[in-house]
Amino acid sequence: MDRDTILLLHPFIAAIVVFPLIGIVVNHALQTRQRRLQVATGAKSAIPPSAGSEHVRLGRWLTGSVVGIVLIAFAVDVFGYIVDKQVWATSPFKVISIVLFFVAAIASLSFLYQAKTRLWRGVFAILTSVALIVIGSQDGVYRNDAQWYISHYYYGITASILMIFSLAIVKEIYQDRTHRWRNIHIVLNSIALLLFVGQAFTGVKSLLEIPLVWQKPYVEQLYKQQCDKMPCTVQSAPALKMPK
Ligand code: HEM
Ligand code: HEM
């Protein structure tokens, strides 16, 4: 697979798996709430009782798929940088520790799926989130710190942590008669939903801005010479080795 195709892996899975899942999960969320409020007033509800369990069943898939696409994007960014800058030659331990953080993120999330007690759910939720943050702070990841409030990275990492948190508190939502955890879940995941909408916007914007491999040396010149602000001339770049 060439670099340009690898870049498309993350948006492709977002479009074909993550966003459809978000649609179904949110639909079930609204049904769950509507049914609960109808039943609480003593009225009969036309919504089946399975709406809640379907929301959770697909919600579990949603958490996994969001963390999955974030890890794919990080892998593209971080390993792309490692190859380009030949980091392996200068600091092999750094490369090994980055690989171990990827393993740690996947292992912690799979343990979180199986954890029963509150303590272990807390521990694995924190470990998964920390592993994502550590990988996300590596060289090669485009964080857009200057515009963090519209950054695909910051929205993405926050949404992933909110999904991990939802997975960790499923038991609390069901057991809490005062609905405190349920309300916390609703508030946090309404924010997550807005972040996902933001991801769709900032994600397609990223795609628009990232040049194809053969265009890169020319487009870099446009940025260096600030061609958006002043007239400039793009020099011919050394011919790239194109895959046969
Ligand atoms: C964008 C994503 C999500 C949104 C907007 C969302 C929103 C909601 C809403 C509105 C409810 C109904 C609350 C009520 O009864 O008033 C709910 C219930 C619930 N959600 Fe989510 N949620 C999302 C993702 C998740 C995920 C990823 C999980 C866990 C893996 C999860 C676990 C639960 C649980 C356990 C309930 C209680 C279900 C029941 O009463 O049977 N949610 N959610
Ligand atoms: C659930 C939704 C999504 C999440 C949580 C998410 C998360 C992320 C994260 C954390 C990164 C790494 C930071 C960066 O390089 O900017 C990233 C990269 C990227 N995302 Fe997304 N993203 C989502 C949806 C999308 C969509 C819908 C598109 C485009 C249609 C997209 C396109 C990209 C591109 C082009 C990159 C940079 C290249 C790469 O690292 O693969 N993303 N995404």
Automatic annotation (TrEMBL):
The keyword Transmembrane applies. The chain crosses the membrane at residues 6-26, 61-83, 95-112, 119-138, 153-174, 186-208. Keywords: Membrane, Transmembrane, Transmembrane helix. This is DUF4079 domain-containing protein. It holds the Pfam family DUF4079. The lineage of its organism: Bacteria, Bacillati, Cyanobacteriota, Cyanophyceae, Gomontiellales.
